[in-house]
């Protein structure tokens, strides 16, 4: 019999059924149950669904594409016209030095991030994830056989560079940076990013920079990590980036994002994954993306709206003791309910039952799977310090967030 496996090779990927579900998806189920029982909608602050929608030109573009029969396969990388427009955006707004061969259109940046993890995965490779992270980053790491190692955060919930520098050994590693961050709202300034990049270069790590919330840095301009590599020779570059149309343009359900590779060698790996996993992004949605890039004015308006909600509707949480500082960016605030005597799961369940407000409980943002030598997930614990954390989304209607915060304060006052 012909063997298709190298002698002695062990699977480095866990059994998929052992990978923990995402807490963000679990809370959806709790809300559906609440609504079925009570017959009224819950006030949903658990999910990042924005109050705004894309400009009319975007819908017009998708309708025209369908009407005109622009509904076929495109290249796996996406339409050159869209990638060229993205290169202009990446160059002028993000300061990247890139070209269309290094840019890949993806069906949402979730798919883009999975593609990047597939592209960097290698036997025994590790991924360095923030100790509190978006649960999908963890699922994707495990799905692609990257062993998660969690790095501590500083007092403002940004990556702790000194602690990262103490990580020893010479396994192949990828550092995941997510600024502005989900779920913490932390933003890394240029100095912080430079320190991370210097460390990655000195240790030979690749970097994945998830910049889905680039349009929502409130207190200072967003810095895109890859722009700090523009003066490094392409062969030496190591930063992959992921961007999304979902957040800035309010295009969550359209499923459109894009990723960049640092050089041709890495782009070849990304292309292979795209070919094998998506064939191509949907053509009408790509044409809608070109229309969206032609309407950048909405980005500032959307950011102003979310910042206004943060500054007016979220601010009262500072007086409840549940929130110590307003998030510097993104769509989420991370509350800490430990002083109320309840853990986050109980707080979230009782808040939903008693006040009809849904939040996402924090333990699911800090899971700790134990992966054995054969790459299998043996147990999944959570980080004790995250047992009091709750994520609140403030990208919805300002008045909805205001009412939700009022009810959270009422509930907390009863404890
Ligand atoms: C940190 C982060 N990255 C990426 C995404 C993916 O967004 P999309 O797949 O809609 O582009 C999200 C969505 O919530 C996110 O929070």
Automatic annotation (TrEMBL):
Residues in Aminotransferase class I/classII large domain copies: 43-408
Superkingdom field: Bacteria
Cofactor(s) required, per the database record: pyridoxal 5'-phosphate
Known EC number: 2.6.1.-
Record's keyword terms, sorted: Aminotransferase, Pyridoxal phosphate, Transferase
Coiled-coil ranges (or none): none
A Pfam family assignment: Aminotran_1_2
Keyword Transferase in record: yes
Keyword Transferase among UniProt keywords: yes
PANTHER family: AMINOTRANSFERASE, ASPARTATE AMINOTRANSFERASE
Family: Belongs to the class-I pyridoxal-phosphate-dependent aminotransferase family.
Protein name as annotated: Aminotransferase
Organism of provenance: Streptantibioticus parmotrematis
Origin organism lineage: Bacteria, Bacillati, Actinomycetota, Actinomycetes, Kitasatosporales
């Amino acid at each position: 019999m012909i063997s298709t496996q190298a002698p002695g090779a062990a699977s480095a990927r866990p059994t998929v059924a052992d990978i923990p579900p995402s807490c963000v998806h679990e809370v959806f189920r709790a809300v559906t149950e609440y609504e079925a029982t009570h017959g009224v909608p819950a006030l949903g602050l658990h999910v990042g669904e924005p109050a705004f929608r894309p400009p009319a030109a975007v819908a017009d573009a998708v309708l025209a594409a369908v009407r005109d029969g622009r509904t076929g396969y495109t290249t796996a990388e996406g339409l050159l016209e869209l990638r060229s427009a993205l290169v202009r955006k990446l160059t002028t707004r993000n300061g990247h030095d890139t070209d269309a061969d290094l840019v890949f259109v993806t069906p949402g940046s979730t798919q883009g991030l999975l593609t990047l993890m597939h592209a960097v995965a290698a036997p025994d490779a590790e991924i360095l994830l923030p100790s509190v992270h978006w649960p999908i980053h963890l699922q994707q790491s495990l799905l692609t056989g990257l062993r998660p190692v969690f790095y501590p955060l500083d007092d403002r919930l940004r990556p702790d560079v000194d602690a990262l520098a103490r990580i020893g050994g010479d396994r192949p590693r990828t550092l995941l940076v997510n600024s502005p961050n989900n779920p913490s709202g932390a933003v890394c300034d240029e100095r912080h990013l430079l320190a991370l990049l210097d460390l990655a270069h000195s240790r030979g790590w690749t970097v994945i920079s998830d910049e889905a919330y680039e349009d929502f840095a409130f207190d200072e301009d967003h810095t895109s990590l890859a722009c700090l590599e523009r003066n490094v020779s392409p062969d030496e570059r190591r930063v992959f980036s992921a961007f999304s149309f979902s957040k800035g343009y309010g295009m969550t359900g359209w499923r459109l994002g894009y990723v960049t590779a640092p050089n041709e060698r890495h782009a070849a790996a990304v292309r292979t994954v795209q070919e094998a996993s998506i064939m191509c992004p949907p053509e009408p949605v790509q044409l809608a993306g070109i229309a969206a890039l032609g309407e950048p004015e909405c980005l500032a308006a959307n950011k102003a709206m979310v910042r206004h909600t943060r500054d007016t509707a979220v601010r009262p949480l500072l007086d409840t003791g549940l929130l110590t500082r307003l998030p510097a960016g993104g769509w989420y605030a991370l509350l800490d309910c430990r002083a109320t005597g309840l853990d986050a799961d109980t707080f979230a369940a009782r808040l939903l039952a008693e006040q009809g407000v849904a939040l996402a409980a924090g333990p699911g943002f800090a899971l700790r799977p134990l992966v054995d030598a054969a790459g299998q997930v043996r147990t999944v614990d959570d980080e004790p310090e995250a047992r009091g954390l709750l994520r609140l989304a403030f990208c919805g209607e300002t008045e909805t967030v205001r009412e939700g915060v009022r009810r959270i304060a009422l509930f907390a006052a009863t404890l």
